Amino acid sequence: MSRKVMHICLSNGWGGLEMYPSRIIPELRRQGWEAHGLALAGSRVAASLVEADITPLTVASRGKALLKVGRLLKYLKAHDIRILHCHKSSDLRLGALLVTLRPSLRLFFTDHMGVTRPKKDPYHRWAYGKVTLVFSISETTRQRNLAAFPLPPGRIRRLYLGIDPAPYAPRLTETKRQALRDSLGVPPGAVVIGLAGRLTPGKGQGLWIEALAGLAERHPALAWHGVLIGGLTAAEGSSEAFVAELHERVAELGLAERVTFAGFRADLPRLFEALDIVCVPSRNEAFGLTVIEAMAAGKAVVGANSGAIPELIDEGTGRLAAPDDPLAWRDAMGELAGDATLRQCLGEGAREKVSAHFTLNAHVQGLERAYIDAWE
């Protein structure tokens, strides 16, 4: 079979879903695949594909993509591409149309978001009927997919996301690590409690701030500093109104000197080296990429006991707390902040778990097996 695939992501956003094609394409290439991309002109997805050494086809909009289906079919034929892989449910309309016009194509779809309502009306039965296989990025999302999609269980497969652990291995000298902590406003000797992600209500930053206030009250002698990592503007994917609310609440609670808003950081693997505890209080993560990134960095993680996060964290790698219970988060953070030996043990266990179960190499091997099986 042709070892060529086109990844389709017609999105103007920028999050884990949009980053996915450019993250996996280099690994696909290393495993002998020729990858192509289709993206919206001027989008960050298109730019990321260029950075991954792919010159993507671009269209002005999803509607224009449908109008240019003839051009797309000619491109697929000219390059002998027989596998299409979509990443947004709205792109399935295009993928299904291409398969309808050229039945020899195989169509794959990764549900990055976790479907929340049934999709069994006539349109979705047609679109999903053209899909060879749906990838669910966690068992939590797979169960939702089984209930929502008009497909038999054999065409819905769990395939955990993965990362390359190597960039997350510590590499800073102690002098550089201390300089990084100083730049974040961390007092000497303080335990650094970090939270990374888009600043939007569903990511749990508000609860985290309330929990930090509780930590200060319950453990007045404990030296700690909070670091909130994430873009502060709409252009960086965050809610500016919510960011303003967080700043206001931090001031009201008297935490202005103990919480740093670090903004968007492209150097997250290095930033993890400045942290001692990483918190992920998101209410409904379909997977939890930040969780495994922090685990790969050897950090003790406190995660929400909802969504897919409990599939990633166990008692040997971190702690879980309800995403609506600031007292539970206060206690989990207090336990870890007060015990450096426990943090080290959990971090070592976390790093080993990522290497065993959540690597990019293993993820792409799963993709490759599915692509090949589709032709057997």
TrEMBL record:
Alphabetic keyword roster: Glycosyltransferase, Transferase
SUPFAM superfamilies xrefs: UDP-Glycosyltransferase/glycogen phosphorylase
Pfam families: Glyco_transf_4, Glycos_transf_1
InterPro entries noted in UniProt: Glyco_trans_1, Glyco_trans_4-like_N
Keyword Signal: no
Listed Gene3D superfamilies: Glycogen Phosphorylase B (3.40.50.2000)
Keyword Membrane: no
Domain of life the protein comes from: Bacteria
Residue span(s) of domain Glycosyltransferase subfamily 4-like N-terminal: 14-165
Protein name: Glycosyltransferase family 4 protein
Organism field: Halomonas gemina
Classification lineage: Bacteria, Pseudomonadati, Pseudomonadota, Gammaproteobacteria, Oceanospirillales
